Amino acid sequence: MSILIENLRHIYNPNSPFESLALDNVNLEIKSGELVGLIGHTGSGKSTLIQHLNGLLKPTSGKIFIDNIDITDSNISLVDIRKKVGVVFQYPEYQLFEETVYKDVAFGPSNLGLDEDEIKKRVIESIKLVGLDYEDIKDRSPFELSGGQKRRVAIAGVLAMKPKILVLDEPTAGLDPKGRDEILMQIKKLHEKQDLTIILSSHSMEDMAKVATKLIVMAEGKIEIEGHPKKVFMECDKLRNIGLDVPLVSQLIKKLREQGFDIREDIITIKEAKEEIIKYIRSKKI
Amino acid sequence: MIKDITIGQYYPTNSTVHKLDPRVKILGTFMFMASLFIIESFYLYLLVLAFLGSILKLSKIPVRYILKGLRPLMFILLFTLLINAFMTPGKIIYSIGPASISQEGLRQGIFMAVRLIFLITGTSILTLATSPIELTDGIEKLLNPFKKIGVPAHELAMMMTIALRFIPTLLDETDKIMKAQMARGADFESKNILNRAKNLIPLLVPLFISAFRRADELAMAMEARCYRGGENRSKMKQIRFTRKDYIAFATILTYLVLIILF
Amino acid sequence: MDNIIKVEDVVYEYLQEETNLKALDGVNLDIKKGEFVVIIGHNGSGKSTLSKHLNAILKPVHGNVIVAGMNTKDEDKIWQIRQNAGMIFQNPDNQIVGTVVEEDVAFGPENLGINPDEIKKRVETSLKSVNMYEFRNKAPHLLSGGQKQRVAIAGIIAMKPDCIILDEPTAMLDPSGRKEVINTIKKLNKEENITIVHITHFMEEAIDADRIIVMEKGKIVLEGKPKDVFTQVDKLKKLRLDVPYMTELAYELRKSGLKIKEDILSVDEMVMSLCQY
């Protein structure tokens, strides 16, 4: 499913002393099947943008089309939007509340008014999708699981709504390296196998370089840079001016080029860097 | 939405009222509240209004702040007014079907509503002009003499401080959980009261769990910072009675005596 | 006294319904005064449990923990130990007590019963040393995560500790908040000679440490200077821990037959090493 955003503006607390402009004329197109990385500081407008995608916030002005349907239209039912767009918020494990994992994952689909069989089918499917063992976990209390497991259960709870677009706000925050890796790989798998459009926000440029097919860099409510990760990470200076990190590999490539290394500029992962450096050094030897 | 709620709000300026000892302000507020239960005649209402007005002026708190605080209570005020107007027997001046408004009732209703407005305004001035810390310090100091009969003065004050510290954090958290559950199709705006109550479970359970977790962590952090109750504890800010405080206290006392005498 | 912290053969068990989980299983560790030690390891590896032993929140089932010459089992010394070894926790929200920054920093010294004038002085200097003095009258919930953590650090410094233990203080922060906190603790270590024990999941934060300790299943499995620890890429990968990106690249390049130094941690070292090739 595609997303088209036109001239989106959002002002918090309009006409009060606390008035603040959170989104300033955002224009954006996300094609079906993309895995989009959303980058920006806390307060750059990322979360505000995410909350517009499933109708939790209404734009001050501008339009949002999901699959060519204008969701800012007042006749659109919110349930319909939320069926299409699933949002996993930061630290989603804090939203768990049921006695068993099964019941918690079933919360979303039962709100959609589905019948028992369909709900069960969806619960089984989504628990498997996040890489957990359904039989082993379904009757356990979500509160006795490990941090990483809790988070997966919470993500399963959103997947059970069968969204076509999945938005994840910093899904790896607060996890240890192993947990971070697992969640990230799970997301990549979901993207490949499930025909989902995924929007992912993260502070880790390295993670983004690994999985995203497109990056959107936000600062002060505006989109600053947009494009393929290779293209975005080449703009070291611009990223630094916004106060964001540049992946270390991009920094290295830039410095090596300055030292006269004749290597490609658009390298963002360790694997690519290794291949390119070896190719260059071998060519120099001959 | 939920973030608009303001409890224990403090309006920082450098007014005379702000600089008073919190004990004077707390006791003063209590005396003022007491005075409201005594007043009967129209002229005394004017006296209270004048007194309240001058304190508000001295405190440099904008009137719109007070009005903002009254707005959510409009329903209660109106309710008080109408109940009194309809329920008090007397000379009927207006009737709708079987119900009728009496002259005495209307008068009584207006007075009760005005009394409530005075009460709310008075306590608002206390919280607006006293920082939460001063307030808790003041309460602790006032309760100190009762420690001997087992009143846990320090513990009560510490509880208040922590509550005030965590109210904004928990409101923020409520907002977040609400949004997360709404994204899963939860409906918090159902017209049906029973459904609405049931729908609160997905909000309240995570909120309680989170509050307990926070309490646990906070207790550990406090212990790690050598907290062991009120014993041998010192205070960075000492509160002391000055000449101004004696004058203020005398003024309020005079006011109360005047109200009682008339 | 050279070692500020001595951990001797410490065992700690969490009592669970069926099995006794050994969170610490024979840990030995000496930390010198003024040292900057980073502890890495997975959740459940025992890092947090160890850190809580260092300021007597937890007490060992077996073995001893000695802080500044005092055994944590000695009930009379407990407050002195906690004053000497300050502790910062992961969640910046759940460790701030005061409703105003200044009041929170004063909380520790107030608990120690220090006189008001001295507290005022300490609050001022500690807020200045974490660069938060201008926020002294703000309410904590209006600050960013990084700022809250710095306030928490100021609250500890105001108690004049010899040593600060930080249990994943950066886990919930964004990159700029993380930098603020790291720079603050580095500065305190260098300028005020405060011993730092820093627990983290971010390997790049460990590069400048004096010593790195890797924990797994309640034991110390690897220990040494960053260069010595991070070059053991295979071992770290087996533990499913990260390696700094440049060390990983150096490791990959060596595997492909390129003879460059293996103890590379930063971009500049990598550039230098490749230029010499």
TrEMBL record, chain A:
Subcellular localization(s) per the UniProt record: Cell membrane
PROSITE patterns: ABC_TRANSPORTER_1, ABC_TRANSPORTER_2
GO CC entries: ATP-binding cassette (ABC) transporter complex
Keywords of this entry: ATP-binding, Cell membrane, Hydrolase, Membrane, Nucleotide-binding, Translocase, Transport
NCBIfam families, per database record: cbiO (TIGR01166), ECF_ATPase_2 (TIGR04521), PRK13637.1 (NF010158)
Family recorded in the similarity comment: Belongs to the ABC transporter superfamily. Energy-coupling factor EcfA family.
Name of the molecule in the record: Energy-coupling factor transporter ATP-binding protein EcfA2
Organism: Alkalithermobacter paradoxus
UniProtKB/TrEMBL annotation, chain B:
InterPro entries reported in the protein's UniProt record: ABC/ECF_trnsptr_transmembrane, ECF_transporter_component, EcfT
Coiled coil: none
Record-level GO cellular component terms: plasma membrane
Main location: membrane
Database matches in CDD domains: EcfT
Cellular location(s): Cell membrane
Iron-sulfur found in the keyword field: no
Keywords recorded for this protein, A-Z: Cell membrane, Membrane, Transmembrane, Transmembrane helix, Transport
Gene Ontology molecular function, alphabetical: transmembrane transporter activity
Membrane topology: Multi-pass membrane protein
Physiological role: Transmembrane (T) component of an energy-coupling factor (ECF) ABC-transporter complex. Unlike classic ABC transporters this ECF transporter provides the energy necessary to transport a number of different substrates.
Oligomeric form and interacting partners: Forms a stable energy-coupling factor (ECF) transporter complex composed of 2 membrane-embedded substrate-binding proteins (S component), 2 ATP-binding proteins (A component) and 2 transmembrane proteins (T component).
Name listed for the protein in its UniProt record: Energy-coupling factor transporter transmembrane protein EcfT
Lineage: Bacteria, Bacillati, Bacillota, Clostridia, Peptostreptococcales
Gene symbol of the encoding locus: ecfT
Automatic annotation (TrEMBL), chain C:
Sample GO molecular function, one term: ATP hydrolysis activity
Stored PROSITE patterns: ABC_TRANSPORTER_1, ABC_TRANSPORTER_2
Record InterPro entries: AAA+_ATPase (IPR003593), ABC_transporter-like_ATP-bd (IPR003439), ABC_transporter-like_CS (IPR017871), ABC_transpr_CbiO/EcfA_su (IPR015856), ECF_ABC_transporter_ATP-bd (IPR050095), EcfA_1 (IPR030947), P-loop_NTPase (IPR027417)
Highest taxon, organism lineage: Bacteria
Domain ABC transporter per the UniProt entry, residue ranges: 5-242
EC number(s) reported in the record: 3.6.3.-
GO CC field: ATP-binding cassette (ABC) transporter complex
Subcellular location: Cell membrane
Pfam entry (one): ABC_tran
Membrane topology: Peripheral membrane protein
Enzyme class per UniProt: hydrolase
Predominant location: membrane
Keywords, ordered alphabetically: ATP-binding, Cell membrane, Hydrolase, Membrane, Nucleotide-binding, Translocase, Transport
Keyword check for Ligase: no
Family indicated by similarity: Belongs to the ABC transporter superfamily.
PANTHER family per the UniProt record, alphabetical: ENERGY-COUPLING FACTOR TRANSPORTER ATP-BINDING PROTEIN ECFA1, HEAVY METAL TRANSPORTER
Protein name, UniProt field: Energy-coupling factor transporter ATP-binding protein EcfA1
